[in-house]
What we know:
Elements: H1 10-18, E1 25-29, H2 34-45, E2 52-56, E3 58-63, E4 79-84, H3 86-91, E5 99-102, E6 105-108, H4 110-123, H5 136-162, H6 166-185, H7 205-216, H8 218-224, H9 235-245, H10 248-251, H11 257-268, E7 272-273, H12 275-281
Parallel strand pairs: 1-2, 4-7
Antiparallel strand pairs: 1-5, 3-4, 5-6
Helix pairs in contact: 2-4, 2-7, 5-6, 5-7
Amino acid sequence: MLHLARQAPRRAITALRRHQTTTPLTYYSAWFCPFAHRATLALEHHADVVPYAWEEALGWEKRPPTGDEDLKAEDRDDFWYHYKSPGLLAANPLGMVPTLVDEGRVVTESSVCVQFVDELAKARGGAAPALVDADPFVAARSRCAADKANRTICSGYYRVLVRTEDDERTAGFAQILDGLRAFFEDDDATDVNGPFWGGRDSPGLPDCVLFPYAYRLYVLEHYRGAAFAVPRDFERYWRWYEAMVARPAVARTLPDKDRYVAHVAKYAHGKARSKVGNAVRRGAAAHDYDHKLDGDK
């Protein structure tokens, strides 16, 4: 069984020291998981008032596959399955990250975790700009933009990475590019006040939802070839991307690229058995995985 090293941003420790009277959130996470990365972005954005204790809660173990009866004998090599920490399973029996625990109360689902951290920071008088706008109408549009990015760009990423058919990979990458165009052509994203969604000068909910996948798009070019690189003439996208990675609170959350390339090889080579990977292999969208049907089996 392989246990991966904990990789919590250093800021979390600093925030803990500054807020000795505030019970830190227990944060069940995984360094490689883009879903969890969303929550990490929110926690680092609000680290001045939302201390947290990171627990690396997902690992991988290599063992023979269950199911897959149609595999040829020579293809029945060892496959990779998730190891999930006892603490994570006790808090969230589905074993999904991110999972946040506050004195026994549990918050799950990546975009919900982002909004929860933002609301907690507001209640505590945090200094960082809110991730969700105070105007209910702007907030509603931002939630729609975040959901659309999740359903197009993020699901397209797994379609390219996991599917074996060339036409499926090509369609998945077209889905990504269409999603990026829509994200940045949205009327609320063309304001010249700032590079982030809605013309903001600091990231918001849609940025936190999209960025973990945008950061990982380089692996598609690595495993699938130059045709799967985001064109440089996507100027609005690249301006946004460079503004995101330049922010210290974002930079602290970034997994090492070489390490991530090695990690994601199990998906690119069809050896990963996770809920998302299983869903995409059977033809479903990544965001439509089924906990029972796509369980880690």
